[in-house]
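Example: Transposase DDE domain-containing protein.
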Amino acid sequence: QELTVKFADACGTSLKKQRTDSFFIHGWLQILSRYGLFKETIRVFLQNLRKQKPGLCEDIVEELSRDYLANDFDLTEKDREKAQRQIKLMAEDMHLLYKTFINHNQVKHYESFKTLVNVFDQQCETVEGAEGEKLEIIIRDKPKGEEIISTPHNTDARYVKKGKQTICGHKGFVSESCEETNKTQFLTDVEVTPSTTADAKELPNIQERLEESDMKPDEQYGDAGFVNGQTIQDSQANEILLEGPSSGRSQSFEVFNAEDRPLDVADFKIEIEENKKGLTVISCPTNQAPTDQSRNSMTGNILVHFIVAICSACQLKERCPVKIGTNVATLTLDERSYAGASRHHKYMEDPGYRKKCAIRAGAEAMVSEIVRCHGARKSRHRGEVRTRLQLIFSAIACNVKRYIRHGEEYGYVMAINA
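Written out as C-alpha cells, the predicted fold is:
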C-alpha cells in the first residue's frame, strides 16, 4: 500500500476515482462430487491415523466397508445407482469413525478428523431408529450451512457454479485508479475471499481498507454485483459516491421500455427529506396522492396507504407494487429499496450517466492483465492465506511494471526511493 502511494505521487496519479471488479481464482484441486468428497475425506484421515497411530488404524480399517488406503484409489463412479449405494456406505463409515474417535484425547484434535466431522455434519444427519433398530443415517438433499467443505485438502476452498463455469477455489477482488486525466493507473487494493462471497458483501471491506491506507476514493465504480440500495447508502455514509447499475434488475432497454413492464417504487413521485432520514411519497404513477404514510417500528419499512376504490379501478393495478386489501391499499418501501430502484431508472433513462459509468469497463482489462500476465487466475497453494499472498505479489508486480513504463514514456513528477 505504501509502495502504491509512492508510485501514484511520483507519476502524478490521482486516486480520487477508482473502479472495482472481481474474478474467480481456480484451485489446483480436483472438483469432487459427494462420492469423491466422502471417499477422499475418509482416506486423508486414515492416512494421518496410520502415520500417527498405526495400531488404531489397523483395528478400525477392518470394520469399514472398503479399503480406503488401497493404491488403486478412484474418486469417481460412473454408475449412478452404485454411486448412491456407496455414498450411503461411506456415510456409515464416517459415522463409525466419528463415534470411535470423538472422545479420543489425541485423535479428536487431528485436523483431518475435524474435517471428517464437519463433512459428515454438513452432508448427513442421524435419525433415531425405532426401538431395537440401529441409528439411521440420512444423506441430506443439500449440504447444511454456508461454509461448505468442497475438499479435505483445502477447507477454505468453496465450490461455486456461474454459468458454465464450475470453480473450487477462491474469489479475488481488485481495485485501481481510473481518473481520465491520469497517464498511468495503479492497483490500490486486492483481496481473496471464499468463492461464494457476494461482491456487495465485500464492498464495505474494500472501502475500509482503502480508507486505512489513505487511498480512499471520492467516487467508486462497480458493476451490478457491487451496486444495490444498501451499498449505495452505506457508501454515501462513508462519503464515497458509488456509481454503476443497480443489481437484481434487467439492463435490457427493450424490457425497461416495454408497455407491460412491472412498476417499482421509483415510478412513484417521491421527495427526499432535507435531513435525508426519510422519504415522502407525493403521488403514484397515475398522480393519485396517498391518504397517509407511517413507518413500521418493527421492520423500519414505510407504509403508504391509498384509497382502495381508486386502486381497484386503476388500469395499472396489475403492474403496480401497491397491494390492494379489503380496507386499504398499501405500498411498502424503505430508503434502501428506493435507492436501488431510482439508480436503475437513472441508468436506463440517462445516456449521460451510462457514459459516465462506462469507465468501469476498464476494470475488465485490469483483471485480464493480472490473471493473464501475472498468473492470478490459478492458485498455486492450498490455503486462502497463501493464495492472498500470491495475489498481493501479482498486484505489486503489475504496479511495478506500470511504474517503469510510465518513467520510460513520461518521466516522473518527483524522485522517490522505491
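The chain has two domains: 1-29+171-418, 34-139.
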